[in-house]
Amino acid sequence: MLEPKGVNPMSESSSLDPERILHAARSWIWEHTIGLYMRRKEGNPVMVGSGVLLKVADVGFVLSAGHVLKEMNGAEFLFGSMSAGGRLISTTEHLEIRVTTDERTYDLGVVALPDVVASKLIEQKKRFLRITDLDLVREPLDGFYSVAGYPQVTNSPDYQVKEISAEIFYYGTCLDHGTITDSTPGVTIALYLREEKLTRVSEEKGERESVRMPILKGISGGGIWRLYADNDNDRIDSWKPTWIRLSGIEHGVLKRSIKGTLVGYAIGFIAQNFRSLENSIRLYMPE
After folding, report:
1. Of 170, 229, 251, 278, which cross-links 107 as Cys (Cβ 3.0–4.6 Å)?
2. Could you tell me if 246 and 129 are in contact, meaning their C-beta atoms sit under 8 angstroms apart?
3. Helices assigned H by DSSP within the chain
4. 142 or 256, higher pLDDT
5. pLDDT tens digits, one per residue of 150-189
6. What is the spatial order of strands in the sheet that 46-56 belongs to?
7. Residues 6 or more apart in contact with residue 181 via CB below 8 angstroms
8. 3-state class (DSSP) for residue 135
9. How far apart are CA 245 and CA 223, in angstroms?
10. What pLDDT does 7 receive?
């Protein structure tokens, strides 16, 4: 598990302990975040990105970045639960995959999961979000956020034992209001990225060591999560993981920012492409 060495509060006057909340939220976020792999003919699995699990009505989806899903074109699609001892999940069933065409602005993709794949992910300790777990706003709320995904450099398969020693990149920060110049209102969400060392936490032994931030290729398609908003300050002592909301899907790491697409746009994209779910989705969408 890779975490920032230190987390700044949302404001200088805040008496909150965001690092404590970041640590408490990581298991919940991990349960909803998977790795995405592909395999070309006669080749080994290669990691290409991350994804977030969502269920709309009775249909399971993976939300990810469009460029990640496009990279898999023509290859076998494999799903990684990233659980200890877990193996990649494949399927012979047809996958319904939809991606946005404007990669620079939206860069979003969704995969409708066959029931057998969803069941295997649940068996390997993964869970699906519901629409009520999403931050369906047109502009992100100021608050404390995290981004989570699986860097390729720390999540390559062991081809001898056919297992993955998974390690998630998990980073706490706040909204970036000024660095990104090509943001689109109602679509873009951006987080401030500090260049610093991280702490590697051993899940088995609880040991911590300082490491350099890894190359982040592979976290694309991971979630951008709001842990709490500024207006939660007066009740923060009662914080629990049920406060967490998925705010966006990450698709780019810039010099000082992490960029993504607001999850409300992702839900609208599902409604447009899976018409049988449109009425269920409209019940939750803001006016």
Report:
1. 251
2. yes
3. 18-31, 66-71, 115-123, 263-273, 278-282
4. 142
5. 998 888 776 676 666 678 899 999 999 877 778 888 899 9
6. 76-80, 33-39, 46-56, 59-64, 109-113, 96-99
7. none
8. coil
9. 10
10. 43
- Please tell me the total number of residues recorded for the chain in this structure: 287
- Please tell me the distance from the alpha carbon of residue 277 to that of residue 39, in angstroms, as a whole number: 31
Which amino acid appears at position 180 of this protein? I
User: Residue 79's Cα: distance from chain center in Å?
Assistant: 14
What CA–CA distance (Å, rounded) separates 210 from 178? 30
Interatomic CA distance for residues 150 and 169, integer angstroms = 6
Return the bridge partners of 46, or none: 38
Beta carbons within 10 angstroms of residue 218's beta carbon:
24
Assigned token pair, 203 = 């899940």
E-only strand ranges, 11-167 = 33-39, 46-56, 59-64, 76-80, 96-99, 109-113, 143-149
Choice among 55-59, 114-118, 134-138, 232-236 with the minimum mean pLDDT: 232-236
Burial 183-195 (b: 16+ CB within 10 A, else e): beeebbbbbbbee
pTM for the full predicted model: 0.88
Q: Rounded to 10 degrees, what is the CA torsion of 222, 226, 227, 231?
A: 170
What's residue 209's pLDDT? Answer: 64
Which residue do the tokens 């909803």 mark?
A: 32
Q: Which two tokens stand for residue 256?
A: 């000082």
pLDDT (average), residues 41-45 = 85
List of domains in the chain: 2-275 (2.40.10.120)
